[in-house]
Amino acid sequence: MADKKKNAPLPASSAGLLRFFEDETKGVKIDPKIIISMPISIVAVSWAIELLLAP
Fold this sequence. Notes:
By secondary structure, this protein is mainly alpha-helical. 47% of the residues lie in helices and 0% in strands. The chain has a domain of 26 residues. It is rod-shaped. It is a single-pass membrane protein. Component of the protein translocase complex. Heterotrimer consisting of alpha (SecY), beta (SecG) and gamma (SecE) subunits. Can form oligomers of the heterotrimer. Keywords: Cell membrane, Membrane, Protein transport, Translocation, Transmembrane, Transmembrane helix, Transport.
């Protein structure tokens, strides 16, 4: 019985495109807030440089 529960199929969601696992992967863990804020800050800095250094 216990073996069947461990090997049970995953629930289908979004046509099977999303799967969530409990196992942690190795690697660098970065906060999602940093991932979102980096491109926004790059765009803001590039606009500021363009406005301040415009001829």
